[in-house]
Specification:
Strand order of the largest sheet: 3-2-1-7-8-9
Bound molecules: ligand BV8
Number of strands: 9
Largest sheet: 6 strands, parallel
Radius of gyration: 18 Å
Shape: globular
Helix content: 25-40%
Order of helices and strands: EHHHHEHEEEEHEHEEH
Distance between the termini: 11 Å
């Protein structure tokens, strides 16, 4: 196994499934009863803001009763103990990675617990509902706060930082994502192009499985702690 110093980890909804949070493409292909286009686009928000706000208010409230699982905790342990570079890039908008203790991480699709004021462009921590048109604590405007979430057609956050980490990576690990959404689904190809080894851990083979040197099929709660043991043992 070539020397591993820099690791990039991409996580998706599958890593939070065992914490009880719904994934996007469940068996019915719906997302908590909605078609994703009806709730996760700027057009949907313009068309029916109260539907979209209610959808996110429900998910933000749901988050309060969800706990990090063994996979989140294992990645937090790796973050604390790994001597080389490490970056956890999550597509998830839940806060389970940070609640497990992860530090070297970023939310490329935003966060449920962040609000964005379309009046003054401020972003702020937000725990409650947005559907009842609260006033922005920064500028006072009422009803101008939207979820600070990257919707389809919007630019994901921190892409330069992500690309830089991918180019430097010796190991790229994808956990709990279907590989359905870009640009995240293309990260494995970038990492491989720059010489990284690539590993996927997922309940089913993802759409991009064939890009990975290795694919481990199973539950994140089982596979991720085992893999962290392995990689810390080899460091
Ligand atoms: C952009 C926030 C450009 C919302 C999300 C045609 C071709 C290529 C691309 C496009 C195209 N048409 C349009 C596009 C672009 C589009 C896209 O990729 N569309 C897809 C549908 C084709 N992408 C975008 O619009 C992105 N922006 O491209 O901007 C641009 C350029 C310049 C200037 C401006 C703009 C923005 C995409 C972000 C959308 N927002 N989330 C919210 O959360 O409310 S996406 C959402 O779905 C998630 O965040 C996640 O990223 C994504 C995929 O979901 P997954 O995390 O993978 O979850 P999923 O349910 O799909 O899979 C779960 C997996 O876990 C499964 O495989 C399952 O087997 C596994 N699993 C389940 N249980 C477990 C498990 N694994 C392990 N253990 C378990 N227990």
């Amino acid at each position: 196994m070539p020397e591993i110093t820099n690791i990039v980890i991409l996580t998706g909804a599958g890593i939070s499934a065992e914490s009880g949070l719904a994934t996007f493409r469940g068996p019915d292909g719906l997302w908590e009863g909605h078609r994703v286009e009806d709730v996760a686009t700027p057009e949907a928000f313009a068309r029916d803001p109260s539907l979209v706000q209610a959808f996110y208010d429900a998910r933000r409230a749901r988050l309060k009763s969800a706990e990090p699982n063994a996979a989140h905790r294992a990645l937090a342990r790796l973050d604390a103990e790994w001597p080389g570079e490490l970056l956890i890039v999550t597509q998830n908008v839940d806060d389970l990675h940070e609640r497990a203790g992860a530090r070297r991480m970023l939310h490329m699709h935003g966060e449920l617990k962040s609000a964005w004021c379309l009046g003054c462009d401020a972003r702020m921590r937000w725990e409650g509902d947005l559907g009842d048109h609260p006033a922005c604590p920064e500028c006072g405007a009422a009803g101008r706060l939207r979820p600070d979430i990257v919707w389809f057609g919007e630019m994901p956050y921190e892409m330069e930082r992500i690309d830089g980490a991918l180019m430097q990576s010796d190991l790229f690990v994808s956990i709990g994502t279907s590989g359905a959404v870009y640009p995240a689904a293309g990260f494995v190809q970038t990492a491989r192009h720059y010489g990284a080894r690539t590993l996927e851990m997922n309940l089913d083979p993802s759409l991009g499985s064939y890009h990975f040197h290795e694919s481990r099929i199973g539950r994140a709660g089982e596979l991720v702690p085992m893999w962290v043991e392995e990689v810390l043992g080899s460091s």
